[in-house]
Amino acid sequence: MDLDIEIDGWPATCDWADLSYRAAEAAEKVAPELANPRLTASVLFTVDDDVQRLNREWRTKDKPTNVLSFPMLLRDELTGLAPEGGPEMLGDLALAWETCRREAAEKGIATENHTAHLLVHGMLHLAGYDHEISDRDADAMEALEIKALAILGLPDPYGDRDNQEHA
């Protein structure tokens, strides 16, 4: 998958573009439909105000959130996409700096690790996975996230399921 990455308002404390590619590669390993060479996705690293505006405009929720996913292919279109042909836009992700940083601090983890989780989470949403449909769907999505994060050498973010929410 090719990524179009824009970084605005995030500090240069990490190579966010490299983290995006590594998270996408891990997501491709657990959700092979994402490994189609025709796919492209955009990743916007921005600030809470911008994500709040997007959330208000597209989801009628007037608040910032950690990651927004805007899929552009239906699940059956993605899974039926031939590997040959022109580029296909999978969708867009937008991550909010202040929210990501705050959540990482609350969890006692590095912002980079939390961001990797959110990137994987967002990529899975672009692939049609949705934790809000049912508990079974949430469990399936979490299992994929845990596997992808393990590929990145990161621990299970849901290890204490009684005290943590879905991303």
UniProtKB/TrEMBL annotation:
Q: Name one Pfam family in it.
A: YbeY
**Which GO biological process annotations does it have?**
rRNA processing
Q: Which UniProt keywords apply?
A: Cytoplasm, Endonuclease, Hydrolase, Metal-binding, Nuclease, Ribosome biogenesis, rRNA processing, Zinc
Query: For binding Zn(2+), which residues are annotated in this chain's numbering?
Result: 121, 125, 131
Q: Quote the subcellular location field of this record.
A: Cytoplasm
Highest taxon above the source species: Bacteria
Q: What is its EC number?
A: 3.1.-.-
State any GO CC term.
cytoplasm
Q: Cite the cofactor comment.
A: Binds 1 zinc ion.
Principal subcellular localization: cytoplasm
Q: Does the keyword Transmembrane apply?
A: no
Q: Name one GO molecular function term.
A: zinc ion binding
Q: What cofactor(s) does the depicted protein rely on?
A: Zn(2+)
Please report which protein family the annotation says this sequence is part of. Belongs to the endoribonuclease YbeY family.
**Entries under HAMAP family matching the protein:** Endoribonucl_YbeY
Q: What does this gene product do? A: Single strand-specific metallo-endoribonuclease involved in late-stage 70S ribosome quality control and in maturation of the 3' terminus of the 16S rRNA.
Q: What is this protein called?
A: Endoribonuclease YbeY
Q: What species is this protein from?
A: Pelagerythrobacter marensis
Lineage of the organism: Bacteria, Pseudomonadati, Pseudomonadota, Alphaproteobacteria, Sphingomonadales
